[in-house]
Design a protein that fits this description.
The chain is built from 26 helices and 11 strands. It is mainly alpha-helical. It binds lanosterol. Lanosterol binds at residues 232, 236, 338, 340, 382-383, 389, 446, 455, 457-458, 504, 523, 526, 534-535, 583, 695-696, 701.
Length: 728
């Protein structure tokens, strides 16, 4: 319908969709807290103009000027920064869409719906727009935006669309249902889909493999005790177990009754839900459940729950889990670790404290921070932002390009440093041991201090910026020595004892055999922390930089940490010379870090067979246009898979790797840099290509700012090595 609804101007497009006036969206950045606002009156529009950054995120013309076309790498860098500097936000950080995963919006929308929270009209419209824009040709949705359709993606996003008001008669919905039914319907979904659909009452709780909160009563010494799991898993398992234990379900209504008829291949009434606990479509079954897990589930369903799970155990377990939920909420001001546990904790607070409670309302306020608006509509970001990570890498790239003291860019770098200063975590967690948290005083998080989770490489990359600017380039110190020492102290708590490697949030707390208990089906390597070449490199190299300026601080410990970490990097190399990258796609990303580690101790092409082999691996995958391109399938399959087209970001990773390795032949690197420069647009930007990041082997996630700062870094290194000759 065309007309005005609550102040919105709605215009029909292609008969079915509704489009909002994109020029009314604004991103608000309050010290890194990102929220989107749709301005409803002309007055508001006049008072709050749309910035270039807003327009850029929304895919509107930014009107940033065309620049003199670059023929030398230094000119390309300058053009890039002319554009990219316009995207720096007032607090000094950069922001971005952090999309890709298609299982996050369902959590948030289901939790709104389950708690009777009204969804603003502009969200409804833009979320529908986004999901329809991301629908696969076959009618379904995948685990992530580039993935094949799966039951998880299709059943959940179909449900979300229905909650948001899409009609079951809409041709796109009919097509989606067709695809869902072809995959066996929602009873073939993975555990998390079954969980959410049971919260809604679309499936019955019997279909959900047990999530017993009593696991949290296991003594800490037990090898499978949840505190040993990867933090993301235990923080999801925690509220999930509470909701499961309560068998919380929204009251039945017409929509739910209708979904019960839409999502299955047989009438709802005739489904034996308990028999489908382990049903799973091949499209979803990335990590099939182990026989051990199936046995445990069997015992839980047939013996533990009906015969042994007494009321007093249930009460004790729920009380302890609730307390841990509260710790998580208090320690993050209700933002929580990520948008998976955040909506679940929201429901816990709703169940326990009710719709009028502070805890529940504060959750609703925080959930807003996970929302993002792009050119397609509204999506849910993978975290509450990428603030610290992007800001750190941006500054490092500029330093690498020799711009630390350029009068043109120094003000931008100072602002970035100020932002990083504001985001260092200054206080330890209260009752840290009780709630099983890693030390955090002195650390930096991935996104914001408010979220407040230590990450080994985020701490390292931010610390590197501080050292480079303050100690290396004479910037006015914003962070004093004691805070620098705090950061190093945290890093020194994070090494994996047996391997020497570094994991992401915490040292590994349990055995990798725990993967036998991975019940999520759609993800790999989720149960415990692992060693990562990326995280290990970040720590090792920043410790070396630190020692340059502070040679006496904990010197012998640092020496030992670095030596064993390097041993791990060497061991992690695969027979073909490559390293598997866990957080970027894929082997180009792994190589960039591992070869940086080795070069930091002087291991390079000319003196190291290992490095030589790694270089040959990379060179063997260079494409005819000079670039590199890896498909996301490489991350899933753990072997090299070519993308059909070379990619700017991966090309930069590959040449950065080769330059760290001091690869002697300039020619392949020159061709690559040339290809990157040739793809730069007139206004200095690069266009978005394929998705760059990954987690848990199977889910991809975008890092849109990589296409700005990795070219700067690559060209900066190139100039330092081979000079600034004309390439175009
Ligand atoms: C991230 C994003 C950043 C990433 C790096 C810093 C790049 C990495 O080097 C260390 C691990 C880390 C912090 C990381 C871990 C897993 C995250 C938080 C994510 C990939 C972003 C989204 C993902 C999170 C697990 C999504 C929720 C999904 C579940 C399976 C719980």
């Amino acid at each position: 319908a065309n007309g005005h609804v609550n102040g919105h101007t709605l215009t029909p497009t292609s008969g079915v969709g509704e489009k909002l006036d994109r020029s009314r969206w604004r991103l608000l950045d309050e010290s890194g807290r990102h929220t989107w606002h749709y301005l409803k009156t002309e007055k508001e529009v006049a008072e709050w103009p749309q910035s270039a950054a807003d327009k850029y995120y929304l895919g509107l013309p930014t009107d940033l000027p065309d620049l003199r076309s670059a023929s030398k790498p230094s000119e390309s860098i300058d053009n890039c920064l002319s554009f990219y500097s316009q995207l720096q936000l007032p607090p000094g950080n950069w922001a971005c869409e952090y999309g890709g995963p298609l299982f996050l919006m369902p959590g948030i929308v289901c939790s709104w719906y389950a708690t009777g929270t009204p969804i603003p009209l502009e969200y409804k419209i833009e979320m529908k727009n986004y999901l329809f824009a991301r629908q696969n040709k076959d009618g379904g949705w995948g685990l992530h935006v580039e993935g094949h359709s799966s039951v998880f993606g299709t059943a959940m996003n179909y449900t979300v669309l229905r909650i948001l008001g899409a009609s079951e008669e809409d041709p796109r919905m009919i097509k989606a249902r067709g695809k869902l039914h072809a995959m066996g319907g929602a009873t073939n979904g993975p555990h998390w889909a079954k969980f959410w659909l049971s919260v809604l009452g679309v499936t019955r709780w019997e279909i959900v493999n047990p999530v017993p909160p009593e696991l949290w009563l296991l003594p800490d010494w037990v090898p499978i005790a949840p505190w040993r799991w990867w933090v993301h898993m235990r923080q999801v398992f925690l509220p999930m177990s509470y909701v499961w234990s309560k068998r919380f379900t929204v009251p039945e209504n017409a929509l739910i009754r209708s979904l019960r008829q839409e999502l299955f291949v047989q009438p709802y009434e005739s489904i034996d839900f308990g028999a489908h606990r382990n049903s799973i479509a091949p499209e979803d079954n990335y990590h099939p459940k182990s026989w051990l897990l199936n046995l445990i589930m069997f015992l839980l369903v047939w013996i533990w729950i009906p015969l042994l799970r007494t009321k007093s155990i249930v009460e004790k377990a729920e009380a302890w889990v609730w307390r841990l939920v509260q710790y998580e909420d208090h320690n993050t001001d209700y933002a929580d670790l990520a948008p998976v546990n955040a909506p679940m904790n929201t429901i816990c607070c709703f169940i326990k404290e009710g719709p009028d409670s502070y805890s529940f309302k504060r959750h609703l306020y925080r959930l807003e921070e996970y929302l993002w608006v792009n050119k397609e509509g509204m999506l849910v970001n993978g975290t509450n932002g990428v603030q610290v990570w992007d800001t750190s890498f941006t500054i490092q790239a500029c330093v690498e390009a020799g711009l630390a003291n350029s009068s043109k860019w120094k003000p931008m770098l100072i602002k970035g440093l100020e932002y990083l200063e504001s985001e260092q975590i200054r206080e330890e967690i209260p009752d840290r041991d009780v709630c099983y948290r890693q030390s955090r005083k002195g650390a930096w998080p991935f996104s914001t201090k408010l979220q407040g989770y230590t990450v080994s490489d985020c701490t390292s990359e931010a610390l590197r910026v501080v050292l480079l600017l303050q100690n290396g380039h004479g910037y006015k110190p914003l962070i004093d020595d004691s805070r620098i020492h705090d950061a190093v102290d945290v890093l020194l708590t994070m090494q994996n004892e047996h391997t020497g490697g570094f994991a992401s949030y915490e040292p590994q707390r349990g055995s990798e055999y725990m993967e036998l208990l991975n019940a999520a089906e759609v993800f790999g390597r989720i149960m415990v922390e692992y060693d990562y070449p990326e995280c290990t490199t970040a720590v090792v190299t920043v410790l070396s930089l630190f020692q340059k300026f502070y040679p006496d601080y904990r010197a012998s410990e640092i020496k030992a940490v670095k030596e064993s970490a390097l041993q791990y990097i060497r061991r992690a190399q695969r027979d073909d010379g490559s390293w598997y990258g866990s957080w970027g796609i894929c082997f180009t990303y792994g190589a960039m870090f591992a070869l940086e580690s080795l070069s930091s101790v002087g291991e390079v092409y000319s003196n190291s067979p290992r490095v030589k082999k790694a270089c040959e691996f990379l060179i063997s995958h260079q494409m005819s246009d000079g670039g590199w391109g890896e498909s996301y399938r490489a991350s899933e399959l753990k072997k090299w898979v070519d993308h059909e087209k070379s990619q700017v970001v991966q090309t930069c990773w590959a040449v950065i790797a080769l330059m760290y390795a001091e690869y002697p032949d300039q020619e392949p690197i020159r061709r690559a840099i040339k290809m990157v420069m040739a793809r730069q647009q007139k206004n200095g930007e690069w266009l978005q290509e394929a998705i760059e990041g990954v987690f848990n082997c199977s889910c991809m996630i975008t890092y849109p700012n990589y296409k700005f700062y990795f070219p700067v870094k690559a060209m900066g290194m190139y100039i330092a090595r081979w000079g600034d000759d004309k390439l175009l």
